[in-house]
Here is the input.
Amino acid sequence: MRISDCFAAGVQPLSFETFPPKGDLPVDQARNVFAGLAPLDPAFVSVTYSAGGSGNSGRTVEVAQCAKDEFGLNAMAHLTCINATRESIQAQFDAMRGAGLENVLALRGDVPADQLVNHEFKYAVDLIPLAREAGFCVGAACYPEGHAACLDTVADMRHMVAKQSAGAQFFVSQLFFDNQAALRFLDRARHAGISVPITFGIMPFLSKSQITRMVFMCGASLPAPVVKLLARWEHDPAALRQAGIDYACQQFVDLAAQGVDGLHVYIMNQPDIAARVTEALR
Ligand code: FAD
Here is the structure.
């Protein structure tokens, strides 16, 4: 099913982000993840991709096909274009088509520090029209608190509008811990002319090291309640994980009540997180 149709159905789609598991048997391991997700009946699952080949990201299409064919899950493959050539992108499209995948999240990817060898694609906006021409339903990334490398939020919004003009049919947001910041962003996006659905992505914090890494990578702000939870449970990893999932559930319940277009959970391949959020939303 095309993800644009999930939004058109008038419900608030709940979706889960997964990644190709590390190790020698990524598809076998992915089966364990999808077996936990299928009973939750998400609107779609997405599978990340990294051109740099970190972990098993080269297996994105295979893993997404497994979700679709073996578990009946609606799947979306991520695709990055930085360092890619037109030929390599067309090869990815062919592989996705061959696997029967209809949905692509078209991304630039992070610029590698020292190995930028191809310059054919500079931004996601260069990839989006190609994915549309290839017949896919195309999503793009957006950043409620601005992209980490862009200090000018007005320019960042302009770049988001350009992605919509290039053919993005929906947006999936970067993680955030402050719902008010996300809702202000939603207002600004609508005023700037974004008319396609925006689904809000949230990653529960599970440990202090994980949240520190995330905050530095994506520039999300840490509201006082999160800092207090981190301080309170710092020396109790199980309680901190629990508090992080509870906090994310509260964020989702609040966003659902605000009537946002969709909800996307960064589940880190842990189906219990998906189950907890699904339960909270019921
Ligand atoms: P772009 O939209 O191209 O933006 C990148 C930067 O360039 C921004 O700062 C933007 O403001 C700026 N910019 C855009 N257009 C212009 C212009 N014309 N002139 C000047 N500046 C411009 N990474 C992966 O490697 N694999 C994944 O699977 C993956 N999945 C993701 C899923 C989601 C939902 C999100 C939010 C991010 C994901 N990422 C993934 C991370 C993403 O690749 C990085 O955030 C990357 O740095 C930007 O990708 P983008 O598609 O948003 O890029």
User: Anything to note?
Assistant: The pocket of flavin-adenine dinucleotide is lined by residues 48-50, 78, 80, 105, 107-110, 123-125, 141, 147, 149-150, 156, 159, 163, 172, 174, 201 (CB under 6 Å). The CA atoms of residues 171 and 198 lie 5 Å apart.
